[in-house]
Structures are given as structure tokens and as C-alpha cells.
Amino acid sequence: MDKKCILAQVCKTWRKVLYQPMFWEGVTPILHAKELYTILLNGEKEFVSLQAFALRGFQSFCLVGVSDLDICEFIDNYPLSKKGVKSVSLKRSTITDVMLEQMQGLMHLELSGCNDFTEAGLWSSLNARLTSLSVSDCINVADDAIAAISQLLPNLSELSLQAYHVTDTAMAYFTAKQGYTTHTLRLNSCWEITNHGVVNMVHSLPNLTSLSLSGCSKITDDGVELVAENLRKLRSLDLSWCPRITDMALEYIACDLHKLEELVLDRCVRITDTGLGYLSTMSTLRSLYLRWCCQVSVCATV
């Protein structure tokens, strides 16, 4: 990426070639609020030109520390904002309900560390085109938000959620709609979710191929057994920072998850060499993460 940026400065011809959108597919520019304005001689602020981004056809942006006004300016000044932007990530933003309501037409939306919108504002931003939604460290997100997601996002394929106030009740809101379309679910540090929530989740989302319960500290071996018995299509499973998981959970995984390729067990402090012995029978497992597993010996990992 750095080479492309440097070569584009060599001459106009190279710039014209390297600014073709095909060279920038999959790239997401990260713009901080302070980078969006130029300070004029009279002290006034002028929004920067986004023409260079438009020439490269960027459809995805990450905006950091922006306000409603900054987002309005971005929409007004980016030539492709009306039809070309498909993915937006807002981090540590003060976005409010009013601006969230304007975020229509997106296919991917990420909200991280945004604490000035309400659940009602989140609902207003949900449109049927969304296929990927990520919400983390947003204090006003709780069970009702999951209810809205299940009702309004029939095409959702990927949901990532880090919300300390989400409970088992939220897991009951998933419907048959998500059961067919959703293949990735990340419930990171959802501290209130227990095995009861897992029961609801595994029956509603049987087609999951990737599941993260990282930091869901109330999940036990029984919850893992439910996952292993009902989510046979899983290829990736993250159980890191689940301190109640023991070797028994690994036996369930080894017996039932025959398609599993990646398993994350970081900080699962009750796992021992015995549990790794169960995993040694899994022919499909390609990646195994065991950082800070204090009862696992070096010999067992060789």
C-alpha cells in the first residue's frame, strides 16, 4: 500500500495508472476528525478535498472522532457519497440519532465507542441492505437492539457485538430469517450471557460457520456442548477468556465439530494437557491458539 502511494507521486502518468479503482479494492481509508479540515489564514476551517479518494473509487471509509457536523461535511464533499459508499466505520464518534438516521443504503456498518446515540437511533439506521453490522463499546446498546436487528435485517450475514448489558433474552430474538443468512456471530465480552442464551442461539442460527464467545465469562462446558452438538458447520470457534471452560469442553469439540479449522483458547486457565490430547484427533484443525493457558505444558503443544 505504501508503495502505491509513493509511486503515485512520481508523475501524472503513474498517478493516473495507480489511481484506477481496481488497485484499491478492499482498501479502507482511515480519516481522523482533525485531518478533515484545513485551517485558512483567517483562522477559519475549510473541509479538505476528497477528490483523490473519489478517483480511486473508495466505497469504504473509517472515520475516527467525528461529530454529526463532520459526517455531514463528508457526505456533502465526497462525490461518491450518495451511491458509492457501501461501508462505514465510526470509531469514538459523537454521532447522534439524527445522523444515524441518515446512514441508509449501507451494506456494512461499524460503530465502536460511540456513546451519544440511543437504541432508537440505532434502529433508524438499520436497513434491509445491511449484511454486516458491528457494535462495540456503545453504552446504550442492550437487548432491545438485538430485537430490532432480528426484525429489520433479513440479509444479515455477519454480526459482531460487544455489549455489557446484553443478556440471554436477546439471544431469543433471533429468528428463522437470520438462521438462513447469518454465518458469522461474534459475542465478545457479553458478560451477562449464560448457557441459557447459548440454547436460544444455537437453535436459531444453525448455519453458523464462525462463532466467537470471547470474554463471555459465564459460559461453561455445558454451553460448549450445546455449540458442538448443534453447530456442526463451524469452521472457526473463539472461546478465549472463558475461565470456566475445562478439558471436558475440548472433548465435546473434538467429538462433534469435524469441520473446525480454527480454535482460540487464549486465557482458558482450566485447560490442561489432557484436553489437548482430545484435540489431537481433529484432522481438520489448522490453527490453535493457547496463549496464557497456564496449565498447558510446552510438551503438549509440540
From TrEMBL:
Presence of keyword Repeat? no
InterPro entries, alphabetized: F-box-like_dom_sf, F-box_LRR-repeat, FBXL15_LRR, Leu-rich_rpt_Cys-con_subtyp, LRR_dom_sf
The UniProt record lists the F-box/LRR-repeat protein 15-like leucin rich repeat domain at 101-203, 208-298
One GO cellular-component annotation of the UniProt record comes to: cytoplasm
Keywords of the record, alphabetical order, are: Ubl conjugation pathway
Protein name, UniProt field? F-box and leucine-rich repeat protein 16
Q: Which organism is it from?
A: Cyprinus carpio
**Taxonomic classification:** Eukaryota, Metazoa, Chordata, Craniata, Vertebrata
